[in-house]
What does this fold into?
Amino acid sequence: MNVLIIGGGNMGRSFAESFLNAKVLTHKQLTVIEKDHAQIQELNRMKLGQVYNDYGDFILEKDIIILATKPQDAYAVYPKLKPFITDKHIVLTIMAGVQIADVENNLATKKVIRCMPNLPCQIGMGVTGFMVSESIPQRDADFVRKLLETTGASIQLYNEDQLNAITAVSGSGPAYVFYFMDAMIQKTMEFGFTHTEASKIVEQTFLGTVELYKVNNLSCKEWIDKVASKGGTTEAALKEFNQKNISDNIQRGLDAARERSRELNKG
It folds into this structure.
Protein backbone atom coordinates (compact mmCIF):
# COMPACT_ATOMS: atom_id res chain seq x y z
CA MET A 1 0.00 0.00 0.00
CA ASN A 2 1.10 3.56 -0.74
CA VAL A 3 0.37 6.11 1.98
CA LEU A 4 0.11 9.89 1.82
CA ILE A 5 0.21 12.00 4.99
CA ILE A 6 -1.15 15.52 4.67
CA GLY A 7 0.48 17.57 7.41
CA GLY A 8 4.04 16.95 8.58
CA GLY A 9 3.67 18.42 12.07
CA ASN A 10 4.22 16.53 15.32
CA MET A 11 1.60 13.82 14.85
CA GLY A 12 2.03 13.43 11.09
CA ARG A 13 5.78 13.17 11.51
CA SER A 14 5.39 10.68 14.37
CA PHE A 15 3.15 8.50 12.24
CA ALA A 16 5.61 8.59 9.35
CA GLU A 17 8.51 7.69 11.60
CA SER A 18 6.59 4.83 13.23
CA PHE A 19 5.47 3.34 9.89
CA LEU A 20 9.05 3.31 8.58
CA ASN A 21 10.71 2.13 11.79
CA ALA A 22 8.27 -0.80 12.02
CA LYS A 23 8.99 -1.59 8.35
CA VAL A 24 5.27 -1.62 7.57
CA LEU A 25 6.08 0.84 4.77
CA THR A 26 9.19 1.54 2.74
CA HIS A 27 10.53 5.00 1.97
CA LYS A 28 9.05 4.77 -1.54
CA GLN A 29 5.59 3.87 -0.22
CA LEU A 30 5.35 6.95 1.98
CA THR A 31 4.67 10.53 0.86
CA VAL A 32 4.10 13.67 2.93
CA ILE A 33 2.57 17.00 1.93
CA GLU A 34 3.78 19.88 4.10
CA LYS A 35 3.68 23.64 3.48
CA ASP A 36 6.05 24.88 6.16
CA HIS A 37 9.65 25.21 4.92
CA ALA A 38 11.24 24.34 8.28
CA GLN A 39 9.04 21.25 8.61
CA ILE A 40 9.97 20.18 5.08
CA GLN A 41 13.66 20.45 5.94
CA GLU A 42 13.13 18.36 9.06
CA LEU A 43 11.17 15.68 7.18
CA ASN A 44 13.92 15.47 4.56
CA ARG A 45 16.63 15.38 7.22
CA MET A 46 14.87 12.45 8.90
CA LYS A 47 14.28 10.79 5.51
CA LEU A 48 10.58 10.32 6.21
CA GLY A 49 9.35 9.49 2.73
CA GLN A 50 8.99 11.68 -0.33
CA VAL A 51 8.03 15.24 0.60
CA TYR A 52 5.95 17.68 -1.48
CA ASN A 53 4.85 21.21 -0.67
CA ASP A 54 1.65 21.08 -2.75
CA TYR A 55 -1.03 18.77 -4.14
CA GLY A 56 -0.66 17.01 -7.49
CA ASP A 57 -1.32 13.96 -9.65
CA PHE A 58 1.00 11.84 -7.47
CA ILE A 59 -1.98 11.58 -5.07
CA LEU A 60 -3.76 9.34 -7.60
CA GLU A 61 -1.14 6.64 -6.96
CA LYS A 62 -1.84 6.51 -3.21
CA ASP A 63 -4.08 4.01 -1.43
CA ILE A 64 -4.43 5.62 2.00
CA ILE A 65 -4.54 9.37 2.65
CA ILE A 66 -4.00 10.48 6.24
CA LEU A 67 -5.38 13.89 7.18
CA ALA A 68 -2.99 15.02 9.91
CA THR A 69 -3.64 18.74 9.71
CA LYS A 70 -5.16 20.91 12.43
CA PRO A 71 -8.98 20.70 12.52
CA GLN A 72 -9.28 24.41 11.74
CA ASP A 73 -7.36 23.81 8.49
CA ALA A 74 -9.77 21.14 7.23
CA TYR A 75 -11.75 23.48 4.99
CA ALA A 76 -8.57 24.74 3.37
CA VAL A 77 -7.48 21.17 2.64
CA TYR A 78 -10.75 19.76 1.29
CA PRO A 79 -11.00 21.75 -1.98
CA LYS A 80 -7.32 21.13 -2.80
CA LEU A 81 -7.55 17.40 -2.14
CA LYS A 82 -11.01 16.61 -3.56
CA PRO A 83 -10.06 16.71 -7.29
CA PHE A 84 -7.59 13.85 -6.72
CA ILE A 85 -9.84 11.57 -4.64
CA THR A 86 -11.00 8.38 -6.39
CA ASP A 87 -13.03 5.34 -5.34
CA LYS A 88 -9.88 3.43 -4.42
CA HIS A 89 -8.70 5.92 -1.79
CA ILE A 90 -9.17 5.36 1.93
CA VAL A 91 -9.13 8.60 3.91
CA LEU A 92 -7.89 8.31 7.49
CA THR A 93 -8.53 11.42 9.57
CA ILE A 94 -6.85 12.21 12.88
CA MET A 95 -8.38 15.68 13.05
CA ALA A 96 -10.01 16.08 16.48
CA GLY A 97 -13.67 17.07 16.42
CA VAL A 98 -14.12 16.49 12.68
CA GLN A 99 -16.82 13.88 12.10
CA ILE A 100 -16.78 11.17 9.45
CA ALA A 101 -19.80 12.69 7.69
CA ASP A 102 -17.96 15.99 7.35
CA VAL A 103 -15.02 14.32 5.59
CA GLU A 104 -17.33 12.20 3.42
CA ASN A 105 -19.39 15.19 2.29
CA ASN A 106 -16.44 17.47 1.56
CA LEU A 107 -14.34 14.87 -0.26
CA ALA A 108 -17.25 13.01 -1.94
CA THR A 109 -16.13 9.63 -0.61
CA LYS A 110 -17.61 6.95 1.63
CA LYS A 111 -14.29 5.32 2.50
CA VAL A 112 -13.34 7.20 5.65
CA ILE A 113 -11.71 6.06 8.89
CA ARG A 114 -11.68 8.41 11.85
CA CYS A 115 -9.18 7.91 14.65
CA MET A 116 -8.16 9.59 17.88
CA PRO A 117 -4.49 9.07 18.79
CA ASN A 118 -2.93 10.44 21.96
CA LEU A 119 0.38 12.14 22.72
CA PRO A 120 2.38 8.99 23.61
CA CYS A 121 1.88 7.83 20.01
CA GLN A 122 4.91 10.03 19.36
CA ILE A 123 7.09 7.47 21.18
CA GLY A 124 5.25 4.32 20.08
CA MET A 125 3.35 3.94 23.37
CA GLY A 126 0.05 5.55 22.49
CA VAL A 127 -3.58 4.53 22.37
CA THR A 128 -5.62 5.13 19.22
CA GLY A 129 -9.33 4.58 18.98
CA PHE A 130 -10.62 4.27 15.41
CA MET A 131 -13.93 3.87 13.59
CA VAL A 132 -14.25 2.44 10.09
CA SER A 133 -16.88 3.26 7.45
CA GLU A 134 -18.92 0.22 6.40
CA SER A 135 -17.83 0.57 2.76
CA ILE A 136 -14.18 -0.22 3.58
CA PRO A 137 -13.18 -3.87 2.97
CA GLN A 138 -11.99 -5.78 6.04
CA ARG A 139 -8.53 -6.41 4.58
CA ASP A 140 -8.02 -2.65 4.20
CA ALA A 141 -9.30 -2.00 7.72
CA ASP A 142 -6.84 -4.63 8.98
CA PHE A 143 -3.95 -2.87 7.22
CA VAL A 144 -4.93 0.46 8.75
CA ARG A 145 -4.99 -1.19 12.18
CA LYS A 146 -1.49 -2.51 11.45
CA LEU A 147 -0.36 1.03 10.65
CA LEU A 148 -1.91 2.44 13.81
CA GLU A 149 -0.38 -0.26 15.99
CA THR A 150 3.10 0.91 15.03
CA THR A 151 2.34 3.86 17.36
CA GLY A 152 1.03 1.76 20.26
CA ALA A 153 -2.28 0.05 21.03
CA SER A 154 -5.36 0.44 18.84
CA ILE A 155 -9.02 -0.08 19.70
CA GLN A 156 -11.74 -0.35 17.05
CA LEU A 157 -14.90 1.57 17.92
CA TYR A 158 -18.36 1.26 16.42
CA ASN A 159 -19.99 4.67 16.92
CA GLU A 160 -18.66 8.20 17.03
CA ASP A 161 -19.77 8.83 20.60
CA GLN A 162 -17.23 6.20 21.63
CA LEU A 163 -14.62 8.47 20.03
CA ASN A 164 -15.80 11.23 22.36
CA ALA A 165 -15.32 8.86 25.29
CA ILE A 166 -11.84 7.74 24.26
CA THR A 167 -10.92 11.39 23.69
CA ALA A 168 -11.88 12.08 27.31
CA VAL A 169 -9.94 9.10 28.64
CA SER A 170 -6.81 8.49 26.56
CA GLY A 171 -6.75 11.59 24.37
CA SER A 172 -6.78 13.97 27.34
CA GLY A 173 -5.44 11.34 29.74
CA PRO A 174 -1.73 12.25 29.54
CA ALA A 175 -2.58 15.72 30.89
CA TYR A 176 -4.32 14.14 33.89
CA VAL A 177 -1.25 12.03 34.63
CA PHE A 178 1.04 15.06 34.28
CA TYR A 179 -1.29 17.01 36.58
CA PHE A 180 -0.98 14.37 39.31
CA MET A 181 2.76 14.01 38.77
CA ASP A 182 3.27 17.76 38.99
CA ALA A 183 1.43 17.91 42.33
CA MET A 184 3.64 15.12 43.68
CA ILE A 185 6.82 16.74 42.37
CA GLN A 186 5.95 20.11 43.93
CA LYS A 187 5.24 18.54 47.34
CA THR A 188 8.38 16.38 47.15
CA MET A 189 10.40 19.56 46.62
CA GLU A 190 8.70 21.08 49.68
CA PHE A 191 9.95 18.03 51.58
CA GLY A 192 13.49 19.21 50.81
CA PHE A 193 14.45 17.44 47.58
CA THR A 194 15.82 19.20 44.51
CA HIS A 195 13.68 19.42 41.37
CA THR A 196 15.86 16.80 39.69
CA GLU A 197 15.55 14.42 42.63
CA ALA A 198 11.81 15.00 43.00
CA SER A 199 11.20 14.45 39.28
CA LYS A 200 13.17 11.20 39.31
CA ILE A 201 11.39 9.89 42.40
CA VAL A 202 7.94 10.58 40.97
CA GLU A 203 8.84 9.40 37.44
CA GLN A 204 10.16 6.07 38.68
CA THR A 205 7.18 5.63 41.01
CA PHE A 206 4.80 5.96 38.06
CA LEU A 207 6.89 3.76 35.76
CA GLY A 208 7.28 1.00 38.34
CA THR A 209 3.61 1.09 39.30
CA VAL A 210 2.41 0.77 35.70
CA GLU A 211 4.79 -2.14 35.10
CA LEU A 212 3.48 -3.90 38.22
CA TYR A 213 -0.07 -3.45 36.95
CA LYS A 214 0.88 -4.83 33.52
CA VAL A 215 2.61 -8.01 34.71
CA ASN A 216 -0.05 -9.09 37.22
CA ASN A 217 -3.78 -9.75 37.11
CA LEU A 218 -4.67 -7.74 40.20
CA SER A 219 -7.11 -4.84 40.00
CA CYS A 220 -6.16 -1.33 41.06
CA LYS A 221 -8.19 -1.73 44.25
CA GLU A 222 -6.39 -4.98 45.08
CA TRP A 223 -3.03 -3.25 44.60
CA ILE A 224 -4.15 -0.37 46.82
CA ASP A 225 -5.01 -2.87 49.58
CA LYS A 226 -1.52 -4.39 49.23
CA VAL A 227 0.18 -1.01 49.67
CA ALA A 228 -2.11 0.47 52.32
CA SER A 229 -1.49 -1.31 55.63
CA LYS A 230 -3.95 -0.53 58.44
CA GLY A 231 -2.99 2.58 60.36
CA GLY A 232 -0.07 3.29 58.00
CA THR A 233 1.10 6.21 55.89
CA THR A 234 -0.73 5.20 52.72
CA GLU A 235 -3.99 4.83 54.57
CA ALA A 236 -3.55 8.36 55.96
CA ALA A 237 -3.14 9.78 52.42
CA LEU A 238 -6.04 7.77 51.01
CA LYS A 239 -8.28 8.91 53.85
CA GLU A 240 -7.54 12.53 52.89
CA PHE A 241 -8.21 11.76 49.21
CA ASN A 242 -11.55 10.11 50.06
CA GLN A 243 -12.64 12.98 52.30
CA LYS A 244 -12.08 15.35 49.37
CA ASN A 245 -13.87 12.96 46.95
CA ILE A 246 -10.81 12.86 44.67
CA SER A 247 -12.04 9.75 42.82
CA ASP A 248 -15.46 11.28 42.15
CA ASN A 249 -13.86 14.54 41.02
CA ILE A 250 -11.61 12.69 38.56
CA GLN A 251 -14.61 10.89 37.11
CA ARG A 252 -16.55 14.16 36.85
CA GLY A 253 -13.57 15.59 34.98
CA LEU A 254 -13.80 12.77 32.43
CA ASP A 255 -17.52 13.44 32.05
CA ALA A 256 -16.75 17.11 31.38
CA ALA A 257 -14.10 16.19 28.80
CA ARG A 258 -16.47 13.83 26.98
CA GLU A 259 -19.23 16.46 26.95
CA ARG A 260 -16.83 19.05 25.55
CA SER A 261 -15.79 16.59 22.83
CA ARG A 262 -19.47 16.14 21.93
CA GLU A 263 -19.91 19.92 21.72
CA LEU A 264 -16.87 20.27 19.46
CA ASN A 265 -18.21 17.55 17.17
CA LYS A 266 -21.53 19.36 16.85
CA GLY A 267 -19.68 22.59 16.10
In short: The first strand starts at residue 3 and ends at 6. The mean pLDDT is 95. The chain is about 50% helix and 15% strand.
